[in-house]
Amino acid sequence: MPHRRRRGRRRRRRRRDDPPRRGHQRGGRRPRRRGRRPVTAANETAPATSDAVSPPAGAGPTWPGAGASGRWIVGDAIDGIRRLAAEGVTVDLVLTSPPFLGLRSYIPGSDPREIGRETSPAEFVTRILDVVAAAADILAPTGTIAVELGDTYSGSGGAGGDYDTDGLFAGRPHWKQRRGDDPDAWPLPKSLAMVPELVRVALAYGVHPLTGEPSPAGRWRVRNVVRWVRPNPVPRALGDKFKPATSDMLIATRAADRWWDDIPVRDPATGTAMTDAMIVAPEGHRDHPAAWPPKLIAPIVVAACPRHVCRICGTPSRRIVERVRRDRRTGEPVTVDMNSRCGDPTGRYSTGFDVEVERRTVGWSTCEHSDDLADPDVWRPGIVLDPFAGSGTTVAVAVGNARAGVGIDLDPRNEAHAADRLGMFLVDTVRLDP
Questions:
Q1: How many whole angstroms separate alpha carbon 107 and alpha carbon 392?
Q2: Which spans in 206-253 are helix H?
Q3: Is the pLDDT of residue 270 over 50?
Q4: Which residues are paired to 214 by β-bridges?
Q5: Distance between the two ends of the chain, CA-based, in angstroms?
Q6: Which residues are CB-neighbours of 115 under 8 A, at least 6 positions away?
């Protein structure tokens, strides 16, 4: 088949000495088209310091330094918190997962300080409230607590029949619930003890729901109950119930205007906020049987712990967001009275579907002591505390997100695990006397 000649005028190849085209500059990039600006993670990055984790500046009275770092305390949770209070440390987020009631023991032997060995749900709730009360003493006024709590079954060692012949723990030594003398201290056999609900009620109303006494932690604002949904839960003996695959994470604060910035964890394409159901597969850790996955807690660290806090006055730096309404059809900024019943000049009625809201970060707030967020003498990274740190996942996630972290754990074996995970960023270890 003969070659067909291309019709039309042939475009001449541009030369270096040709004048630039309209709207272009030689050696530059094509100007951005006018229209909607996508909300991406790059648009929401804090402008102060580099995202790379800088080497730790050392522990002690000036801890934390300019960069992210971690500390480790071997001892009881309340004793470790009191040690931090004596040093004058203020934390911005308490993120933890205490041992569940009657499920398993993490420490060899019998240590009365280990939480989870209580004889009744009422006693367990009291222990949790005592830890929250101690943590509240060193929590910043704008701080947040996030506590993951799992439930337990009455009359089955807490495992819901897993020690039966076909259960997950069949053949293992039976972890038997330590019951007191009161037969009404537990619900009926095979019933959930409703431990997460009891703790939430105690914090919301300031009263222990089982004893009627005032809560030592006082009253809190329960902002969320996040459900951790496990898509691949471990096999368990079911009997006459569905397979358990969730646990609750309580998120509460005492402040009416706490520090909160969920823009970095929103959907990068649409800007949609995260929901209170997190579908995350358990990852575990080779040295800890119940380590939670970093993907579960990283959004909470980023959204609830500030990047920069003033060392002098304790003011956290907040994101300054500009909201711009744009027409979905043209991308142009518009001013729309959503309560008006009159049509626009084109004859169409403006509705919520015609207008979209763009959130744009225009800066970060400071305080009277310094406007430079990179000044290490004035601004420190936010601090995350985990009083039941286990193998150190929370501290590692905090350091990885340019925050400082403190881990407290009763098991001395976890000190080596934390040192292995944090490496050079573990700047201090304290062993409290039992």
A1: 16
A2: none
A3: yes
A4: 207
A5: 93
A6: 77, 98, 99, 124, 127, 128, 131, 388
- Containing 422, the helix (H) or strand (E) segment is helix 414-422
Q: How far apart are CA 432 and CA 87, in angstroms?
A: 14
Domains of the chain with bracketed CATH: 68-318+365-416+427-431 (3.40.50.150), 319-364 (no CATH)
Beta-bridged to residue 247, according to DSSP, are 228
Backbone angles phi, psi at 321, to 5 degrees: -115, 135
pLDDT, tens digit (0-9, with 9 covering 90-100), for 362-381: 999 999 999 999 999 999 99
- What is the band of 31 on the pLDDT scale with cuts at 50, 70, 90? very low
Mean pLDDT of the chain: 80
Q: Could you give the CA distance from residue 308 to residue 201 in angstroms, rounded to a whole number?
A: 33
- pLDDT > 70? residue 34: no
Q: Which among 93, 94, 90 is positioned nearest to 63, based on CA atoms? A: 90
Q: Is 139 helix (H, G, I), strand (E, B) or coil?
A: strand
Q: Are 121 and 193 in contact (CB under 8 A)?
A: yes
CA 285, CA 289: separation in Å to the nearest integer? 7
Give kind and range of the element (H or E) at residue 65: none
Q: Is residue 214 packed enough to be buried (19+ CB in 10 Å), middle (13-18) or exposed (0-12)?
A: middle
Query: Span 313-338, mean pLDDT?
Result: 80
* Least confident range of 6-20, 187-201, 271-285, 405-419: 6-20
What does DSSP say about strands 139-149 and 404-409: parallel, antiparallel, or unpaired?
Answer: unpaired
Tokens encoding 59? 């522990």
Distance CA 274, CA 267 (A): 7
This prediction has a pTM of 0.77
227, 233, 247, 266, 434 from 277: Cα distances, Å? 5, 16, 10, 14, 39
71 in helix, strand or coil? strand
pLDDT in tens, 202-211: 999 999 999 9
Contact 103, 175 (CB under 8 A): yes
**Per-residue pLDDT, 12:** 54
Residue 39 confidence (pLDDT) = 31
Q: What is the mean pLDDT of residues 225-243?
A: 85
- Name residue 277's beta-bridge partners: 227
